[in-house]
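#lab-general

N.A. 3:47 PM
ok so I finally got the sequence cleaned up, no stray characters, all 744 residues accounted for. can someone with queue access submit it? mine expired

B.Y. 3:52 PM
send it over

N.A. 3:53 PM
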Amino acid sequence: MLLMTTARAGTPTPVHFAASVRPSPARVGEVVTVTVKASVDPGWHIYSVVPAATGPATTAISTWQGAEPVGPTTEDAPIQKFDPNFQTQVAYHEGTATFRRQFRLAGAAATSVSLHYQTCNDHVCLPPTDAALPISLQVVPGAVRPEYAPPAPNSGGAGNATEEGAASSAPTARKMGAGGLSVFLLAALGAGLLALITPCVFPLIPITLTNFVKQAGGDRGKLVRLSGGYALGIVALYVALGGIVTATVGATGINKVAANPYVNLGIFVVFVVFALSFFETIQLTLPANLTALQAAGRRHGGTLGLVLLGVTFVLASFTCTAPFVGTLLVAAAGGERFRPLLGTLVFALAFVSPFLVFAAFPQWIARIPKGGVWLARVKAALGFVELAAALKFLSNADQVWQWRLLTQPVLLAAWAVIFVCAALYLWGTLRFGVVAETEKPGTRVPAPRAAFAGLFFALALYCFWGLAGRQVALLNAFLPPSGYGGAGSGAEDGLPWLTDYNAALAQAKAEGKPLFVDFTGVTCTNCRWNEKNVFPRGDVRGELSRYVRVQLYTDRPGDVPNQQLQLAKFGDVALPLYGVVNPQTGAVVDQYAGTITDAPGFTHFLAKSRLASAAPAIPAWAAYSPQVVASATQGSKPIIIDFTADWCVNCKEIEHDVFDSPAVAPTLARDFVTLRADLTQWGSPASVALQKQYGFGSLPTIVILDPSGKEIKPLRVTGRLDVQEFGRRLQKAKGQAQATVAAR
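B.Y. 4:20 PM
back already:
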């Protein structure tokens, strides 16, 4: 029989428990499961079974006399949150929670089981408590039943299941650089226009428009409606793609996808395949059912039919447009949530612009150049560009997996070879595909083609320039970080950068400098641009040298703590993100996100933030003792005693947000004697004596004494409070202290 009991630990608490055990009855030697269900009052929470290096006490079904534990306490999935006060992940439950632990019966089990737990709300934390919860189990004689037998060592039985359960419950800018979104939208516009001259698209434009002119029969209004409906289908499909990406993952979700090495490797393969297709080495064919979709569009007629024809056009040109759209969506990573939607909308509007423009001016249709060998050359030239882009995505995977193969010199050399081949192809020296079949060697090179060949030669020379160790600012955003794979000499700015936030914060506090935090990523091209083109500038480097600097990567598999820190402390996941932190208070002074297009403005941001983070006077908290209090009463200052504990979340918040606030810290440091009593060992004799002496039973508690050692009781603080209210109490305490000293 399953018996349920309810218990309250000691005095009434905001959490209520019901303990049960099964199977019941059970036999000596069998494994039984104790279940504790917690009902938590609104506004309160009970902490998880997951231990943290620092922070609140964990929940555990600790002991049950007459039984031996088999595995740890497990729980339902908790709420998980990065707590900036403890600088660690904490897990807790609100409303209800269920905890379980298996025990092997060694004899007659006791009638209560011990539960260790702690509860807090937004104002106070109750100390860790051990509650004895009544429990009823009938133990009967008999042999151990197989289904309740203890697991053999390493057998993968119940003990291992318990371990798995425990593991499953474990926690698994302000300013935007000017032009960040506008540059992205311009890139989307350019991608849409460039996609128009691909061989899959360009020949279809005059054919489609000529067909619309014939259907319109000289009616310009009808021609506009035909072209508009057709364009609507094209825009609708691309916008739908952007909308799906926005609704499912958003730009920040793409940031994670774009950093995934498998995704980058897949894009590399796709780009190589498309490049080979553009070189006419392989032939890509689309599903035959596109013909059926096109026929359906013609059969329906009207706006719906035109929309279906537009959709068919998009799908038919997929092999040429996919690299542009895919690259565009990857470029949306880390921006505003609606960036994918805006990008695909701008791309689509540029893509349909010929249908709208030529519908308004149909006489221009005859001027559209016909397809031919020149279009095949364009196609192949784009193939070389796709090969170069493919290497960038392979480089991303290389950096995440730390292969250290595609270093800066290797990537520059590969690009140089690709650009030389592209130039030779356009010049007519390198020949393949349709060009080799239809054009005789030695044919005169037209000026436009020669100009593009010269452009590719210039790009190749630029890569060779970089191989010689010189700066290549235009390519810096696409190259690996300096020093990657042993190539180069490290940071471009020549300044040392730390890689651990806590170590950097401690160093900044010791040196009295502000902390500059650079959230970056191995796959973040804008990060590379800023680090290689902006940070080395004399004015920027001069300001950075006045900071302690830390660089935190967030897009590699082991960078989860950095990701959590960025989101919890800076409220953003964009890359790049730069933050300035006051090391004395831990507060964020200011932050700057995105590509730095205004270097003098960024220098001003650094200078202004540095001045704003000038550390105010910080109170020196001495350890509480009766002797220190007695000594303080010989002076003229009021005395503050902060009763705190390592497990008290709200205590940490007051210490960080109130005591270290610039509005409060100077007053505490100048006008008060500040003492701190550590009650982490809540049940120790010393802690119990202080609780009785000052009459409190929860934390945080802050007591203010006048210079004679007498408490000013109206000013006592129990629970959280804001900076303004605490400041008012300090002013009242100063007035009371003056009156006390005057009366001596």
